[in-house]
Amino acid sequence: MFILDFLCIHPFNDGNGRMSRLLTLLLFYKAGYIVGKYVSMEMLIEKTKETYYEALQASSVGWHEGENSYEPFVKYYLGIMLKTYNEFESRVEHLKYHNLSKPDRIKAVIDNKVGKITKKEIMELCPDISKVTVERTLTDLVKSGYIAKVGAGPSTGYVRI
Fold first, then answer.
1. 62 CB burial (10 A radius; 0-12, 13-18, 19+)
2. What is the pTM of this model?
């Protein structure tokens, strides 16, 4: 709400947007949300700037009369915070399995998936592992009884037993 008020006041001729994003980081840090030190919230806002401006516009209507609603802008920033934490979690998850062998990383991906997983999904989650290695590992895991193959053709998937 402070940031919306800041933007509506528009105290500077230039740089209000950048200053508002710096102030946002400061406010999040002071509230204990330090994920912005590790993932660029600025980048996430840039990627969604159309939505940012829509939320800003929706929340600033009636601001001068004290009749505006902060809800769209607050919801937008909560979404950005959630995306920031998801990105951070993704980076940490990658580091967690970084020292494993490629077959062990594939096995870890399967272990973290609830339900069926496809070869395509595994390859998307492990882009540095070749298709041959993924296929070989899946075959070995099926033979060992660790996973079961379900379906056929393009819809083939694998589930933990």
1. exposed
2. 0.63
